């Protein structure tokens, strides 16, 4: 901001007809005209200064212009006037919202007591300087992660209520409504109007954004403005607005200007639309297109199901046409004879094995019978037992008068020994059958 010093040296005496504080008393007050003349005399001693600011009012009366200039940082403002003779030398495209520098000189109207600045020169601030400042801000915000795609919120497929921030009765509002309703007739809007340029643009847009963001029924917010020169779109690159959009919990769509316009709002928004019309098309689905998609999906589903059923029916018919499934009993019939043969062969082998084992058993029985003591007794032999059950094997075991039990082939009888008998060498061996 350019500052200036009074053109006169401090302490320089005022004009001769001016009034000093000590020149007036309750008993001898000065006149209003003399006070105004004194003030005008001081102000006229100031020289011209160059100031920088934003035009917030531009009222043309005849060939003269009366307006206001706002500081770029604070809310300080000044009034200015441009006489018709000066207006002819200034750019013809000056308007509200322009960022300008002006050569002004203070003036005080002693008749009305109004203070104003007369403009002798005014021009736009170089666009390159503005773009440079915007790029520096863009780099700063990007470094903070405000443009990170990971933080962007998805846009709902079919929003119940669309919040719209735009100028009242603007073409942007009409474009959004018309295109959205053509695509989805039941679409609902909740609109907040805000200035789309000038000093009211940023605060009003932020207020509208906060109001819509706090409304639970609003699913997405669209900030829309028609095209304009870079000067008029500066409000949508304001750091305050950019940070407010980043802090919003509701998805925000930026639809500012035309395709080539690129305010910082585009970078921080969850979705950037090239125009308000494009915003309506990207936020609201096309009901005809969705019907076509549903019809296409239904057709594809019907085709897939028909194809699958046809395939399964053909496969089932193929399985049913196989002999084993067409006449399942044939498998048993063809195997019945084989089973009978195997059963007969098994019986024959079992019978043969039984015969062989029967003969073997008979032979073993005969052998055992031949070796059995009973067979020996049946041939006439006998077994003598002493009273304690000991078998008599030696004649000396049964001296005279010894009671013995004699077992023969059929039963047993008691006997008493007469004592051992001396054997005659000519006799046969002992143990001859009785």
UniProtKB/TrEMBL annotation:
Residues 31-122 form the OB-fold nucleic acid binding domain. InterPro entries: Exonuc_VII_L, Exonuc_VII_lsu_C, OB-fold_nuc-bd_dom. Residues 1-30 are annotated as: Disordered. It catalyses: Exonucleolytic cleavage in either 5'- to 3'- or 3'- to 5'-direction to yield nucleoside 5'-phosphates. Its EC number is 3.1.11.6. It is found in: Cytoplasm. Its main location: cytoplasm. Pfam families: Exonuc_VII_L, tRNA_anti_2. Keywords: Cytoplasm, Exonuclease, Hydrolase, Nuclease. Residues 146-364 form the Exonuclease VII large subunit C-terminal domain. CDD domains: ExoVII_LU_OBF. Heterooligomer composed of large and small subunits. Belongs to the XseA family. Bidirectionally degrades single-stranded DNA into large acid-insoluble oligonucleotides, which are then degraded further into small acid-soluble oligonucleotides. HAMAP family: Exonuc_7_L (MF_00378). This is Exodeoxyribonuclease 7 large subunit.
């Amino acid at each position: 901001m350019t500052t200036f010093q009074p053109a006169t040296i401090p302490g320089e005496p005022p004009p001769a007809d001016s009034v000093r504080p000590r020149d007036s008393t309750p008993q001898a007050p000065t006149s209003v005209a003399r006070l105004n003349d004194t003030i005008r005399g001081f102000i006229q001693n100031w020289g011209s200064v160059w100031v920088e600011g934003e035009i917030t009012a531009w009222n043309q009366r005849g060939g003269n212009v009366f307006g206001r200039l706002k500081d770029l940082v604070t809310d300080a403002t000044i009034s200015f006037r441009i006489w018709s003779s000066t207006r002819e030398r200034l750019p013809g495209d000056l308007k509200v919202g322009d960022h300008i520098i002006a050569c002004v000189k203070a003036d005080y109207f002693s008749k009305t007591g109004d203070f104003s600045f007369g403009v002798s020169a005014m021009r736009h601030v170089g666009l390159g300087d503005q773009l440079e400042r915007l790029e520096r801000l863009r780099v700063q915000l990007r470094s903070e992660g405000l443009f990170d795609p990971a933080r962007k919120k998805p846009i709902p497929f079919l929003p119940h209520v669309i919040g719209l921030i735009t100028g009242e009765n603007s073409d942007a509002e009409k474009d959004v409504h018309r295109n959205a309703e053509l695509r989805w007739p039941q679409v609902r809007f909740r609109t907040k109007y805000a200035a789309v340029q000038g000093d009211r643009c940023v605060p009003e847009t932020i207020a509208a954004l906060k109001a819509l963001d706090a409304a639970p029924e609003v699913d997405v917010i669209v900030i829309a403005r028609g095209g304009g020169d870079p000067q008029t779109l500066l409000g949508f690159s304001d750091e305050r607005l950019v940070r407010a959009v980043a802090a919003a919990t509701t998805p925000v769509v930026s639809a500012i200007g035309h395709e080539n316009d690129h305010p910082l709002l585009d970078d921080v928004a969850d979705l950037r639309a090239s125009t308000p019309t494009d915003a309506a098309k990207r936020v609201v689905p096309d009901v005809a297109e969705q019907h076509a998609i549903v019809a296409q999906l239904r057709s594809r589903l019907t085709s897939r199901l028909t194809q699958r059923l046809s395939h399964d029916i053909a496969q089932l018919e193929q399985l049913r046409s196989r002999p084993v499934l067409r006449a399942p009993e044939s498998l048993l019939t063809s195997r019945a004879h084989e089973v009978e043969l195997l059963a007969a062969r098994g019986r024959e082998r079992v019978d043969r094995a039984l015969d062989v084992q029967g003969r073997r058993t008979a032979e073993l029985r005969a052998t055992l019978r031949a070796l059995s003591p009973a067979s020996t007794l049946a041939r006439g032999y006998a077994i003598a037992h002493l009273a304690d059950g000991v078998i008599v094997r030696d004649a000396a075991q049964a001296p005279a008068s010894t009671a013995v039990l004699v077992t023969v082939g059929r039963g047993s009888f008691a006997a008493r020994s007469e004592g051992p008998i001396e054997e005659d060498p000519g006799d046969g061996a002992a143990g001859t059958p009785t």
